[in-house]
Design goal:
The protein is α+β, with helices and mostly antiparallel strands and about 300 residues long. It has one domain (about 5-295): lpxc deacetylase, domain 2 (lpxc deacetylase, domain 1). It is built from 7 helices and 20 strands. It has helices at about 75-85, 110-115, 180, 190-200, 230-245, 260-275, 290-295, and strands at about 5-10, 15-20, 25-30, 40-45, 50, 55-60, 65-70, 70-75, 90-95, 120-125, 125-130, 135-140, 140-145, 155-160, 170-175, 190, 215, 250, 255-260, 280-285. Strands 2-3-9-4-5 form a 5-stranded mixed β-sheet, with helices on one face. It has a 5-stranded mixed β-sheet with strand order 12-13-19-14-15, covered by helices on one side. The longest helix has 14 residues, at about 230-245. Bound molecules: zinc ion. Zinc ion (ZN) binds near residues 78 and 239.
Length: about 300
Amino acid sequence: MSYWKQRTILKRVGCSGVGLHSGAPARLTLAPAPPDSGIRFVRTDLGIEVPARADAVVDTNLSTTLGAGAARVATVEHVLAALTGLGIDNCRVEVDGPEVPILDGSSAPFVYLVEEGGVALQPVGKRFLVVNQATEVRVGDRVVRLEPARELSLRFTADFAHPLITEQVFGFTFSDRSFAREVAPARTFCLLKDVEAMRARGLALGGSLENAIVVDEFSILNPGGLRFPDEFARHKVLDALGDLTLAGLPLIGALTARKSGHAMNQALVRKFLANPASHRVVRVSGEKELEPLQIRLPALTLPGAGYGLA
Ligand SMILES: [Zn+2]
């Protein structure tokens, strides 16, 4: 058993595609990184590193954008969700353009990349941010809340005042469910009536039925339909997991959200990190320490573990 060890990518692996909002092409490569270095983006065309941390967030308008100096990396949440969902602690995410490729609009292609690259165990114990105290952000009827729990879980209520996305609830606990099968394949979505407005603002320029679920007044426009009846709420869990990754370390706590988005998720992460009483950092240095801490980790994913795309 090696649940306590940090994990990185075994060998470099990459893909290419366009950004959802910019429409810009980019190549993305997942590469190994040393223990305790965390997840870092590198704009290889500019030679600038951008840490996947809350203090590097520069925009949360429809997607989460990181920045350092002149470099921007947009729409980081789906690749971050895949890395966190598979328990990857350290990874260098190289991108040669301004936005992470949207691929099919979900985290499944990034899960596939990790499977292709393989997972390497590192001889250093994993570190966690353990939630000590509840933190909440509330705006009208929208809320996102992080509270103490024995393991990481996320529960999201999506309610878009639309017949297909009303009061849709999805909850996910890492120890007993498969992130790769149940969360990663859920795609991003938008309402058809919002598409023109987004394009007028220079957003969703790379969007299509190949990389997003598009919903008109009554129906799903994608010819293949949905991957899950509650795909919308599942994708919001995916987004929240990606956004929580910007806390800088994997969390042990329970997230409950209703109608929140990237901006509220980041406000929560910043409020949580700003209050030293809300959390503590724990390093698991051996298997024996797992039991007293009662930390249950995401299932270990190694090459050949056998999960697939939806
Ligand atoms: Zn998303």
